Amino acid sequence: MLWSPLYWGRSERRCVLYRVQRAWQIYTDWNRHTRMDGTQTYLRQLGLAEQPFAPTADPVYFYATRGHKECLYRLWNGIDASHGIAVVLGNYGTGKTTLLRKLMTGMAADPDRYLTAVIGSPIPSWTSFALLESIVAQFGLRPAEQSFVAYMEALNQHLLENRDRICTLIIDDAQNLNKRGQLELLRLVQNLETQQHKLLNLVFFAQLEWMQVLQAAPNFEQRINLTYTLEPIDFDEAQQFIAFRLQQAGAQPGTGPEFEEGALRAIHAYAEGSPRVMVTLCRNALLLAAQLKTRRITHDIVLHTIEKTTLPDPEKRARVAAAIGASARPPAPVTPVAPGGIRERNVRDQQSRDQRAADLLLRSARARHDQGLG
């Protein structure tokens, strides 16, 4: 009983508490440094200065595909011209958040020109007033009276005071805004304007499912100036995407990790062109390569990574196997064609296609005739 804290004086309890806190701090620091040292060790082993496939959307590792470049160009044009509402749609992992951060980085570099507020992930259960509260708070405003009218007046006054700057509200995960009252509020906010231009740009990044919500609210949809849909990236861009990230992480030719074509095709096929999934697979494949003490990432390493680190999906794994098989298949031999024979062969091919089409139409007509007779 004498060792029970109930019998200790105040100074003894403080001393023990301090020692416990200090011991915990030492342990957490040791644990963090140990993990960091382990990570740095395997990255150095692979010839890398840092993790090229981190799960965070770091603008330094932003690789602009053709779709990303076009989307950014259109976004900047609409924002600088104060055209109003822009919507960027895309499936999970197509780079919407990375685009958002690239946009924010550009705006932060010129604060005299741009005034920006960001809502990272709105809560679906928000009322329209809760959404307005969040917008006002992101612009750094604190109205004295908590009412809808007071908040709208405060926002309008703030935008008027900053009408010489380009004011923009960016909302990520906008598919969470699925209530008519939320969209109606955003329409009212976007209606704040002078005779020359809109006082506030609205930029939304959302999943494709938000399209149905927009179509059900035509009063809001008709005010959208730009809608851009991000598509999955093709194999060539996937190669460049991975090579760019490796280069950004310090990989040098001949000393950094090398992904074989079969491995790249397996990664692209499994990810279906999703940059986020490709990043995850590459990160796990690098870890396995480090364990095997090799810098050459083969399709076997990728297959093992898929088997051990992803959920079972026979369809995806069959697609991966087909992609690897296609990459390993030798190219078909080229048959020499005599001069003047190319046009004749094209004519024969066209005639063959026409004949097949005619046969299909004839069979279809006979089938309909037989059904009519029946």
Question: What is the structure about, briefly put?
Answer:
By secondary structure, this protein is an alpha/beta fold. 56% of the residues lie in helices and 9% in strands. Helix 10 (261-271) packs across helix 11 (275-291) and helix 11 crosses helix 12.
* Strand line-up in the sheet with most strands: 2-3-4-1-5
Number of strands: 7
Q: For the residues shown, what is the average pLDDT?
A: 82
Q: Tell me, what is the CATH class of the domain at 66-230?
A: Alpha Beta
Order of helices and strands: HHEHEHHEHEHHEHEHHEHHH
Radius of gyration: 29 Å
Task: List low-confidence stretches.
Answer: 1-8, 30-36, 334-347
Distance between the termini: 98 Å
Index terms:
alpha/beta; 14 helices; 374 residues; elongated; Rossmann fold; two-stranded parallel sheet; disordered N terminus
Description:
- This protein is of the alpha/beta class and 374 residues long.
- Among the domains are: 66-230, P-loop containing nucleotide triphosphate hydrolases (Rossmann fold, 3-Layer(aba) Sandwich), CATH 3.40.50.300; 235-328, Helicase, Ruva Protein, domain 3.
- It contains 14 helices and seven strands.
- The longest helix is centred in the first third of the chain and has 36 residues, at 10-45.
- It is elongated and about 65 Å long.
